[in-house]
Structures are given as structure tokens and as C-alpha cells.
Design a protein that fits this description.
Largest sheet of chain A: 11 strands, mixed
Oligomer: heterodimer
Number of helices of chain B: 16
Number of domains of chain B: 3
Largest interface: A-B, 45 and 28 residues
Shape of chain B: elongated
Number of strands of chain A: 11
Strand content of chain B: 15-25%
Helix content of chain A: 25-40%
CATH superfamily of chain A: Amidase signature (AS) domain
CATH class of chain A: Alpha Beta
Number of domains of chain A: 1
Strand order of the largest sheet of chain A: 1-3-2-4-6-5-10-11-9-7-8
CATH architecture of chain A: Alpha-Beta Complex
Chain lengths: 483, 478
């Protein structure tokens, strides 16, 4: 039963095929069994069983929602009241959040069963899940490779069926890249579509939470619960939330797909390119027309991102100072010692690297050359997207230059690691929504197809992904040993 | 004195805005609660929390901007000011840097009867920090975050004041204004209104400014004057003895009456300001401005002119009566409710009433003598029921009790005697008893007249109508 989609599980719960408690026990069992994947930081067994019982009662009253009784898991970046919220860092290893993130509240009131908190790169900074204080997560398709990051625990858990679905967050590709490397469906919504309240900030102007699921229909179900205006988040957008499942079956006849030529140049693995070409051909068969588009500013995305994101993170992470919560060094000699050692010992290497980069970029005398210039580039990139998306309905391309790389392969080469996000980062800078959809395999490892849409066109993206999943079965494949 | 030197002063005033809740959270701003009981998750800077702007703070900033005839920015931006300090929970303060909500404006001050216009560079919104508590923690420091997130309006003046006296006048005028507008309670002991002073000196006639020192956190009018005077002396002495003023931040120590260095320019923080990505730009449109303009009270300057024009008040009374909205309202109500002339009402409010309030350390809003009761008293002066002198006695009684003037006049038998028969009888008796003095008066010693008035009033316990007494005495002594 763990091998079913949310929609199928919801039907099973209603037909009496199994109860939420049955399901929850089955998933908890699998989590133990596949402990070595290291997907979870915290498993909340007791609370999960309580929620499952409550969900079964609610299902019996007929007053249930689609997610009622569905065992899922939260990326450990979302604050959960009374439960450790570590953000993958030693800094917050002792942090029990006193409140729920808005997203967590929404899943709770929908009656979803939270199995636990998922592993991630420290403070969401990383593309391989190797920067986590709790150790690397393994990719279920090949346990010697990384699951991607920063939502690596989420992607691995969904791929290995250790949760029916999971939340992720995406600042520069952190939902889409691990979804691609683990062969699942991931959606980064438009910036402002999902509340950031209670989601520990990495780069506030780029961070966005979203669903990580087995298929597009499940992503629609999850997004339905996650999306919406939140008066606790000034950057959330007060627009009505459409019914994301309503348009899933719409025909793709006449769909205009643009392929950004900058996405298919040098650096893209040829097997990945061939896999994507096959996927795009499927769309042609579904009635879509395909043209080339150009986004000349795209090449500036990585440098701009690595100024803006670290600049914001350098301020966002200042609150971790050893004073009020989180890690505090032993026997500080004075205030300066308390700060330097608590932060020096509490943060990992990659986090410190980004805080330093950001601090530098914001410093007097460098601000104009770095931060202001990066903001100008960001506007140019947004213009590129707006122009391209006025010519075509959606754009398609790779999510990652290659399939999952080996654990340890890139961790000592930050530049190479940063380049693995080359196809995802520009989307965050522009703020548009994008998905990663399983599109086949290269050398036995999953390949993701990226679909990029216009602002608040999540329903269109889900429709386009769903139609593809009606004629392909990549998304139903299960890694060996996890069937 | 130091006549070859010229002083240049600019003030940065921090006015705590009188909102019920904090600028970015729903926690209360009330003063004096147990430490950390008025600090919610947002104020504590917990992981994942986000600020949400309190619209009331924006409204108050716009009111202020209008009152100083400033440009109100249609688009202003919150920025993060980054520095580490234990009472700054997020490691940055949310403030406004490049695009403040209030732009260039001005405030007119009066010093020794001369009016001077002081330019206001800008005013911006920001959050206050918490407090570090150094006592009773046995070598540790306690942190109270109740104040963290309290809205502040930082009002920056142009360097256009040339003496401590002018600086005090400016600070007082600003203090009056923010209280008048109802946007700040002005409580200086609680830190609701405090200022930093930028002070420099230059040889008279020199165009460019001297190097300035910034004196931090001055929380009284007395200290601002002393701190500036001290700092001016220090700088002049330094330069005259061949030294150089360095740009630095200094702290005023009121116990020792001196300023001392806190940090030099080299040690100054690089605050790494950048726009706060958690907050949207603040948009103030014409509709919003029109709405606020309609609610704006009559401003002190305009009210003062009106008091002079329509009540025929002199400069001094008009200034005092428009120094606070409540005092002006009290005065106007008394004028309306009594049959007395506005001038007498003004003299009573600025004289006996304010003196009594000051002595008892009370605000006009807490006056034991209500405007109805004062109006009742003044009406009895104007209809000759009592004399001005007796009225002072009645006022003292009123201060101690809740009785009306009429009740007191009745109970104490203070009603003025205007019965000419009764007065005449007393006058006749006094003349008969003091023939020597009558002789003196008649031989040209006019001064003796006062003696007769005094005798009559004494005999009649002050209740005789003085005008009547004068008239009749003059007649009888002819």
C-alpha cells in the first residue's frame, strides 16, 4: 500500500481497504527498515500514530479532506511545535520550535499524518545533502550517489516510499534538483504563492516551499493545501487559489513549448540531452508545437544568485548567536568569544562560506559593485522570462546537467557544486513557477524534465506534467530494493 | 567669551510612536511589564518568523511629516542594519536607509523672542532594540526584549542650530509637537523621547564644518544643554591647545557632567544596510494622505495665530496655551462656558491654574479643577459677585474639594456687598473714627486714600465691591 499515490491512498482509506493507522504503521516500518538512507532526522512515531487515529475518526464522519490520514513528512526547515526543528544544523540540534509554520498548520488541519522531519543540507545550503550535520542522504537509485539537495531527505523519502509525499523548499533548485536526481515530481511554486512563515529563511527573496510527490496529481493535491495568502508573511500574495486538479485532464493540443537554447548548450550531458529530446517528442505527439527561445541574461544567473542569496543569508543567519536559542559554546570568556565560538562551532563549512561571501558583498565600498549589480541582473533575467513566456506557453529544459553524482565527488569543489544548479537558479531569481518531472533514465539513473511556466500558472504546469504522465510511466518506477 | 568660535549642532531625535502594538508584531508596547513578557516569537527573532508592518506606525509617521510640512515619500523601503548585540535579537535592526518615509521639512523655534527655522532632513521608521540588564545577574547580563520591536520615528535635523539654547528650544518644540499630534507620549524618563546630538565648532566666518562628534542618548532637556555646552568647550580647548577633533561617538555622563569617547570612526560598525526582503515597500498614495490630512488637528503655529486674532491674547499667553492640545482645549472650553472675557480666562489658566498644576506635578488632563468649575468661578468675577482677590481664595477651596464656586461662595459668605447703604454706613463710621487722616487727605496727602480703602475692606471682610467703595469714599472725603 505504500507504493500508491495520494489519490489512490485516499480512495483506499475511504473504501476501507486500510486505515490511516495501518498506513502509518507500514510507513514507520519502512522508515526503520531503510534507516541507512538517512532520509529522516527525526521520526515522530507517537505523534504520527495519534494523528492517524484522529484521521481514522475523521474519515469515519465523512468530514475528511483528501490528505486526511495520508502519511507524509516535513523537510526539517519547517518549524513544528514541540518537535525538534534542526534545519540540518548543529546550531539547531537542540532547538524545539515553540510554534508551527503556516504550512505545517495547514497540513495538520487537513488531517495529514506527519511521520517526521526530513534530512536536508544545512540551512538549505547545498546541492547534494552532504552539508547536513546529520550526514549525507543516500539516493535510493544508487546509494553511492547523492539524492541532490537541499531537499535531499524529502526526495529520497518519496522515491524510496518512506512517505507518501513530502514538503520541500527551493531557493535555487532545492526542490527540482533532488526531485530530478531521485526520479520524483517536484514543484517550486511562484514566489509568494506559499507562505514562508515558520520556514527557516535562507534567502528570503528566493525561498519558496512546495510539494515533492510521486506524480503531478499528488503535487496538485499537496499544493492545494499549501498555497494561499498568509497575513503573517508580507511577501505572500493575496490571490485566489485555483482548483489545481480541475484542469489536469485538459488537452495539450496547440500548446506552445519554448526550448531556451542556452539550456541545451555546452555542459549538458549528452545522455541527459537525448532523454529530454525523447520527452519533448512525447509532447509533440500530445499536440504541442516546439520552438527555440533565447534568454541572453541566463548566463549571469549563477553569479547574481551567489551574491543575492549569500547577502540575504548573511543577515538571516545573524540571529543564530548563542544568546537566546540553539547552540552555545562552552564557557565563553566574554561576549565576542560567545559569538565567535558559538557561530564558529555551530555552523558548518558551506554555511560559513556563504555568510562570508554575503557579508563581503554587502560591505561598504563593495555594495554597489556586487549587490546593486546583482539586483540589476536579476531584473534583466526577469525581463527575459517575461518576454519568452509571452511568446510561448511554457519552457522546457533540463533540471540538472547530469544524473546523480557520487557522494564525495563534488563536496570539496564548491564552484563545480554551484554549477550543478545552472538550470534552476534563474527561475528563482525571476520568481516564476517550475516543475521537475521524471522523464527517463540515463545510465540507470533518473533524469528530470524541467517545465517552466508564467507567474501563478501552477495549474497549467500541473496539467502539462499530468498529461505527460498519462502517456509515460517513468514516474511509477521504483528503485531496486524499495519495491 | 569664545567669540571667535561658532558652534554647529544637528539633532537626531528618537520618538517612540504611541501605537498599541509593536511595529512588526502584535505584542503590546506598554511600558514596565515583567521582563520578556511582552516579546512574542517575532520579537525574539525565533527561526522562521517574519515581520508584518503595523499600519498605525505608518499613519503616525505621515501625520508627523505633514505637521512639519515635509515631503511624504510615496515609496519608502525598510532596510536591515546589521550588527551584533545581545539585545538585538535578529542581529539586525529593521530601519529605513536610502528611502525614508518623511523627507525634507522644517520646524520653527523661538529663542529670546527671535524666530528661527530649523530644517528637518528626514524622518524614518525603525524598530527599537531590547535592553541589557547588568545588575543582579552575578557577572552575567540579563536581556529584556519587551522593548524590542517598539516603533520609533527617528527625526534628523539639518546642522542648523548654533547654540545649546537653540538645540534645547528645538528639542522642546519637537517634544511639544509629537505630543500635540498624539503620536508619542513624550515620556523622557521611560525613554519615549531621546536624542543624539552632532556637535562641531569652526572659526567664525568659516564656510566648511568642523569635525563633528556625536553625543549619544541624551534623555532630558537639561542634559542636552549641558552635554552640548560641555562638548563645545572640550572641542574649543582641544583645538586651541593645538589638538584636532576626531570624528567619534561620545557618551554624556550626567553624573560627572562630561562626555567621553565610546568609539572612533575607525571602530565604527559597517552596518551593511540592504533592503529587507521580508517586507514590501511602503506605498503612501494621495488618497491615504488626503485621509490623514482631514484628520490632522489644528497645528500649534496656526492655533497660536488664531488665539491671538480671535481672543486678543498676547504672545506669551498664546504660546503657553498652544503648547499642548489639551491645554488649548481646556482654555477654549472655559471661554465658551464662562461669561468672562477671554483675556481673564487666559490669565487664570496660565496663571493660577498652571501654577497649581506645576506645584502638584499634574498634567492639565488631571486637573482637580475641571473646566466647568473654573468657568463657574470666572463667571462670578465678571458678574461682580466676587472680586478677583476673593476669587483666588475660592479657587484654593475648589482645588481641595469638588464643590462649585457658587457653593463655596455661599457656604463661606463671600458674596460681594454692593448694597450702597451698608457700605455708606461703614464709610461714615471710619471717617468719624479717623478725623486726623481725613484732615491729612483734605490738605492734599492723596496717599492716605489707600488707608481708607483698606479700613473699609477690613471692616467688611473684603466682601465690599472695590469700585463702589472707591467711588463713595471719594465723594465723602471731598
Amino acid at each position: 500500500m505504500y507504493n500508491k499515490t495520494i489519490a489512490e491512498l485516499a480512495r483506499g482509506l475511504r473504501s476501507g481497504e486500510f486505515s490511516s493507522v495501518d498506513l502509518t504503521l507500514a510507513f514507520l516500518d519502512r522508515i526503520k527498515q531503510h534507516h541507512s538512507l538517512n532520509a529522516y532526522i527525526t521520526v515522530t512515531e507517537e505523534q504520527a500514530l495519534q494523528s492517524a487515529k484522529a484521521a481514522d475518526l475523521r474519515l469515519a464522519t465523512g468530514n475528511a479532506e483528501l490528505l486526511t490520514g495520508i502519511p507524509m513528512a516535513q523537510k526539517d526547515i519547517f518549524c513544528t511545535e514541540g518537535i525538534k526543528t534542526s534545519c540540518g544544523s548543529k546550531m539547531l540540534d537542540n532547538f524545539i520550535a515553540p510554534y508551527n509554520a503556516t504550512v505545517v498548520d495547514k497540513f495538520n488541519s487537513a488531517g495529514a499524518v506527519m511521520l517526521g522531519k526530513l534530512n536536508m543540507d544545512e540551512f538549505a545550503m547545498g546541492s547534494s545533502n552532504e552539508t547536513s550535520y546529520y550526514g549525507a542522504v543516500k539516493n535510493p537509485w544508487d546509494t553511492h550517489t547523492v539524492p541532490g539537495g537541499s531537499s535531499g531527505g524529502s526526495a529520497a523519502a518519496v522515491a524510496a516510499r518512506l512517505a507518501a509525499c513530502a514538503t520541500g523548499t527551493d531557493t535555487g533548485g532545492s526542490i527540482r534538483q533532488p526531485a530530478a536526481l531521485c526520479g520524483i515530481t517536484g514543484l517550486k511554486p511562484t514566489y509568494g504563492r506559499v507562505s514562508r512563515y515558520g520556514m527557516i529563511a535562507y534567502a528570503s527573496s528566493l525561498d519558496q516551499g512546495g510539494p515533492m510527490t510521486r506524480n503531478a496529481e499528488d503535487a496538485a493535491i499537496m499544493l492545494q493545501t499549501m498555497a494561499g495568502f498568509d497575513d503573517k508573511d508580507s511577501t505572500s500574495v493575496d490571490l485566489p487559489v485555483p482548483d489545481y486538479r480541475a484542469g489536469l485532464s485538459n488537452s495539450l493540443e496547440g500548446l506552445k513549448i519554448g526550448l531556451p537554447k542556452e539550456f541545451f548548450g555546452e555542459g549538458l550531458n549528452s545522455d541527459v540531452a537525448a532523454t529530454l529530446e525523447a520527452a519533448i517528442n512525447e509532447y509533440r505527439k500530445l499536440g504541442a508545437t516546439v520552438t527555440e527561445v533565447s534568454m541572453p541574461s541566463l548566463k549571469l544567473a549563477i553569479p547574481a544568485y551567489y551574491v543575492i542569496a549569500p547577502a540575504e543569508c548573511s543577515a538571516n543567519l545573524s540571529r543564530f548567536d548563542g544568546v537566546r536559542f540553539g547552540y552555545r559554546c562552552e564557557n565563553p570568556a566574554d561576549l565576542a568569544d560567545l559569538y565567535t565560538r558559538s557561530r564558529g562551532e555551530g555552523f558548518g563549512k558551506e554555511v560559513k562560506r556563504r555568510i562570508l561571501m554575503g557579508t563581503y558583498a554587502l560591505s561598504a565600498g563593495y555594495y554597489d559593485a556586487y549587490y546593486i549589480k546583482a539586483q540589476k541582473i536579476r531584473r534583466l533575467i526577469s525581463e527575459d522570462f517575461k518576454r519568452a513566456l509571452s511568446e510561448v506557453d511554457v519552457m522546457m529544459g533540463p533540471v540538472t546537467p547530469s544524473t546523480a553524482f557520487g557522494i564525495g565527488e563534488k563536496i570539496d569543489n564548491p564552484i563545480e557544486m554551484y554549477l550543478s544548479d545552472i538550470y534552476t537558479i534563474a527561475i528563482n531569481l525571476a520568481g516564476v513557477p517550475a516543475m521537475s518531472v521524471p522523464a527517463g533514465f540515463a545510465q540507470g539513473l533518473p533524469v528530470g524534465l524541467q517545465i517552466i511556466g508564467n507567474y501563478f500558472a501552477e495549474d497549467r504546469l500541473l496539467n502539462i506534467a499530468h498529461q505527460y504522465q498519462q502517456v509515460t510511466d517513468w514516474h511509477t518506477q521504483t528503485p531496486k530494493g524499495f519495491e | 567669551m569664545r567669540s571667535q568660535w561658532e558652534t554647529v549642532i544637528g539633532l537626531e531625535i528618537h520618538a517612540q510612536l504611541a501605537t498599541k502594538s509593536k511595529i512588526f508584531s502584535g505584542a503590546s508596547t506598554a511600558y514596565g511589564a515583567e521582563p520578556n513578557t511582552q516579546a512574542c516569537a517575532v520579537d525574539l527573532g525565533l527561526p522562521g518568523v517574519l515581520p508584518v508592518l503595523n499600519k498605525e506606525a505608518v499613519r503616525m509617521a505621515v501625520i508627523f511629516g505633514m505637521a512639519v510640512e515635509a515631503h511624504i515619500a510615496p515609496y519608502s523601503v525598510f532596510a536591515r542594519k546589521n550588527y551584533f548585540y545581545p539585545d538585538l535579537p535578529k542581529g539586525y535592526q529593521i530601519s529605513q536607509m536610502e528611502l525614508p518615509i518623511v523627507g525634507i521639512g522644517h520646524l520653527d523655534i523661538d529663542v529670546d523672542g527671535v524666530s528661527k527655522r530649523i530644517g528637518i532632513t528626514r524622518a524614518h521608521l525603525e524598530e527599537d532594540a531590547g535592553k541589557s540588564l547588568h545588575e543582579n545577574f552575578h557577572g552575567l547580563t540579563g536581556i529584556d526584549l519587551n522593548r524590542a520591536g517598539t516603533p520609533l520615528l527617528e527625526i534628523v535635523s539639518e546642522p542648523e542650530m548654533s547654540s545649546a539654547k537653540e538645540a534645547v528650544a528645538y528639542m522642546r518644540k519637537m517634544h511639544e509637537l509629537v505630543r500635540y499630534l498624539g503620536i508619542c507620549d513624550g515620556n523622557m524618563q521611560e525613554g519615549s523621547f531621546r536624542c543624539d546630538a552632532n556637535v562641531s565648532v569652526r572659526p567664525k566666518g568659516q564656510q566648511e564644518f568642523g569635525t563633528r562628534a556625536e553625543i549619544k542618548n541624551i534623555n532630558s532637556f537639561k542634559f542636552v544643554e549641558k552635554a552640548i555646552n560641555h562638548e563645545v568647550e572640550r572641542q574649543i580647548e582641544l583645538i586651541e591647545s593645538g589638538g584636532k577633533v576626531v570624528q567619534e561617538t561620545r557618551l554624556y555622563d550626567s553624573d560627572k557632567d562630561e562626555t567621553r569617547s565610546m568609539r572612533s570612526k575607525e571602530e565604527a560598525n559597517d552596518y551593511r544596510y540592504f533592503p529587507d526582503p521580508d517586507l514590501l515597500p511602503v506605498l503612501v498614495d494621495e488618497d491615504f494622505k488626503a485621509q490623514i490630512k482631514a484628520q490632522l488637528p489644528e497645528l500649534p503655529q496656526a492655533k497660536k495665530q488664531r488665539f491671538k486674532d480671535s481672543y486678543a491674547l498676547d504672545e506669551e499667553n498664546a504660546t503657553i496655551l498652544t503648547s499642548s492640545r489639551q491645554l488649548g482645549d481646556y482654555f477654549e472650553t472655559v471661554v465658551k462656558e464662562s461669561a468672562c472675557s477671554a483675556k481673564i480666562c487666559a490669565n487664570w489658566v496660565t496663571g493660577d491654574l498652571l501654577a497649581a498644576l506645576n506645584k502638584a506635578n499634574l498634567e492639565i488632563t488631571d486637573s482637580p479643577v475641571s473646566h466647568e468649575r473654573l468657568a463657574g468661578l470666572l463667571t462670578r468675577i465678571s458678574d461682580d459677585t466676587i472680586s478677583g482677590k476673593i476669587a483666588k481664595q475660592v479657587f484654593e477651596e475648589m482645588w481641595q474639594s469638588t464643590a462649585t464656586a457658587d457653593q463655596i461662595i455661599e457656604a463661606k459668605g463671600l458674596k460681594q456687598i454692593t448694597d450702597t447703604g451698608a457700605i455708606e454706613a461703614i464709610i461714615d463710621k471710619i471717617i468719624a473714627d479717623n478725623l486726623d487722616q481725613v484732615e491729612q487727605y483734605r490738605s492734599g496727602k492723596d496717599k492716605v486714600f489707600g488707608f481708607f480703602v483698606g479700613q473699609v475692606m477690613k471692616e467688611m471682610q473684603g466682601k465690599a465691591n472695590p469700585g463702589e467703595v472707591n467711588k463713595m469714599l471719594k465723594e465723602k472725603l471731598k
